[in-house]
Amino acid sequence: MKYVFLIFFMNLLPQFAGKSLRRDESYPKTSEDVKNEIAGYTDIAKAIIDLAVHGKAQNRSYERLAVFADTIGPRLSGSKNLDAAIKYMFSALQEDGLENVHLEPVKVPHWERGEEFAVMLEPRNHSIAILGLGNSVATPPEG
């Protein structure tokens, strides 16, 4: 069944090359429309690049990243470091005078690595080094 769908899709692809598959009229229909829309942002993009390369933001990105990485460290999902990172960036963006800087409530799962071990029982008893991945499920007691 997968192959039938793939063949069907590949046969349709040339008919819609460069055209939007959406039916609503608000979305650009061709790749030329997309190019024109992107070209409309040239002045804004140039201003951002000039600020970062030649303006008062020159080298600040790397300095901020260095401080961020050195003081906060790894930011695992739901960790205290993630909360510290969010507060740090929130404050930094406000200090930079950006508009509409705000926090939104988000539920983030928190996972902590537990004890991990594996043992080969046959043909001989041997411990095996393993590493559990985030949100992985434990082996049931019966094995």
| Amino- and carboxy-terminal Cα gap | 36 Å
Coarse structural class? mainly alpha
Principal-axis shape equals: extended
Rounded mean pLDDT is 79
Sheet-strand content, in percent, reads: under 5%
Rg is: 26 Å
Share of helix among residues? 40-55%
Largest sheet: 2 strands, antiparallel
Q: Number of helical segments? A: 5
Side by side, the strands of the main sheet go 1-2
By DSSP, the count of extended strands is 2
What's a quick, concise take on this entry?
It comes from Gavia stellata. With 143 residues, the protein is mostly helical. It has helices spanning 2-12, 31-39, 42-53, 60-71, 80-95; strands at residues 118-120, 126-128.
Describe the structure.
This is Carboxypeptidase Q. Belongs to the peptidase M28 family. One of its GO terms (biological process) is peptide catabolic process. One of its GO terms (cellular component) is extracellular space. The protein is mostly helical and 143 residues long. Helix content is 42%, strand content 4%. A two-stranded antiparallel ribbon has the order 1-2. Strand 1 (118-120) and strand 2 (126-128) form a beta hairpin. The longest helix has 16 residues, at 80-95.
